[in-house]
Specification:
- The chain is mainly β and about 200 residues long.
- The protein is built from 1 helix and 14 strands; from the N terminus they run ββββββββββββββα.
- The protein has a 4-stranded antiparallel sheet with strand order 3-4-5-6, with no helix packed on it. A 4-stranded antiparallel sheet has the order 7-8-9-10, with no helix packed on it.
Length: about 200
Amino acid sequence: GDGENYYFLAEIQDNLTTTFEDAVPDQYLAAVVNPDDFGPWPQGANFAAVFKNTVFLAAQALNEVHFSAPAQPEVYPLGNRLYVGDDESGAITGLYATKNALIVFKYNGIYMIKGNQMSGFESFTLSTGVGCIAPDSIAEIPGMGLVFLSAEGIHLLEGALENTGTPTKVVPLHMPIPDWVDRINTGAAIQAQGVIY
């Protein structure tokens, strides 16, 4: 009708139901729903990852990562955002979730998000100057870290995946194959794929 308030009525538990019959009298509806509690959907988001039962979204052109409310992947409160790097570190080029951290790759930097919904999430700088140029090139080597393609060549992000006490550092792996690295077309490298064999 002419009502302007929205109330929680029921939750449909699947993606198959196409009809719903409302038989609940208005006086038995739950509390008023405030649309501001949901926040706007992050515009332009083209990278997504799930970490600690939370969905993280990032837009390539921005320096911020948005995260959902706990166990509610469709709800993005206005305050649920973290800033990673700056314009000098370039665009966000990928997200990779591990057991203990969410890694945010930028063109010229690598950042780590740790924490949880109860204590809060924080971002930390892992590297400036070296980043990832191809999001699909990111691959995890068990017990070692993440391998990825940067503008300089192939690198390993070592020590950020588990709480082993190993210092986190970026190690170049392309030194033995400089002639191959020189042949990489960095303009088309965004489509490069990383495979562990």
